[in-house]
Amino acid sequence: MILHLVIPGLLGPWPADLTLPRPVVPALEWLLARAEIAEVPSSIEALLFQQFGLLVADEDDLPIAAVTALADGCEPGDGWWLRADPVHLRPDVQGVLLVDARALAIEPVEAAALAAAFDQTFAEDGLQLRVPCPERWYLRLLEYPGLRTYSLHDAIGRDINPLLPQGPNKRRWHTLLTEAQMLFHAHPVNRARDERRQPMINGLWLWGGGSLPEGAQAPAAQLYADDPLTRGLARLANVPVRSVPENADEWQEHAHHADSLIVLDSTRYDRADSDPLAWVDHLAELERNWFAPCQRRLKSGQISALHLYGGQGRRYSLTGAARWRFWRRSRPVSQW
Length: 336
Description:
5-stranded antiparallel sheet, alpha/beta, 2 domains, 11 strands, 6-stranded mixed sheet, single chain
């Protein structure tokens, strides 16, 4: 039985000048020390596309919007989709900082009202904002908009100015984003939020443009994920995807000795949120629920191979033979 564990943010990357607390994760440190290391795509999103047998040209966005729209119940068809996620933009001495929807607690009625105002304002441009869920919004376009974008994850907590969409049509889209900010700022939804001392939904972040790719194939017999990208890729490959088990014991009960790919999300935002203490807590939970049990199963032969993907463009692969590599000494996980 082969297990692929995809864990966004597991190994940062953290700034080199940051002093990190040392997590107590002996099983993870053992696994990292004794693994064979191979290069994989540096972003988790690109890694998942690769796992499902999909290749995207380096000069193009990953078509994340079309795939997650599929997971959110839309029918992407052959259109060109952009994520247009709701955000809070806050002026700061460092520029204009972005706060993503996790901190906004957007109600469906608020999303619908702002989308209706957007659609009315930009009707002549042929734009319609779709809001199948409060935290993920979409624009469906008839053709390539001439943009190269930066992911929302890369923009969280950072100055947006160097991360705005680029490309031959960037001026038009920068103007549209500014107009949308002014429209949302004056909307009754945001006036009411301001009175309640909630952060305004005063901007959109465009990213992940493209149309649905073809030829997706399941990377393993069993898939477990709660994130919309993996679930959309599974639907594209026409294979079932289950919710993430609580721990390795629960997984093994349901896997029935089938090869599995599991996406564990707990550390995904720790680096973006500049929260190393949360990262330490999440690693302790992963150690208890996954790394220590997987170490035991590797030693006993219940797992024939384990592949860890923790970011930074590396895959850490182990088989049962790892237990004989005594010369590979464990070192603090922060050094990885």
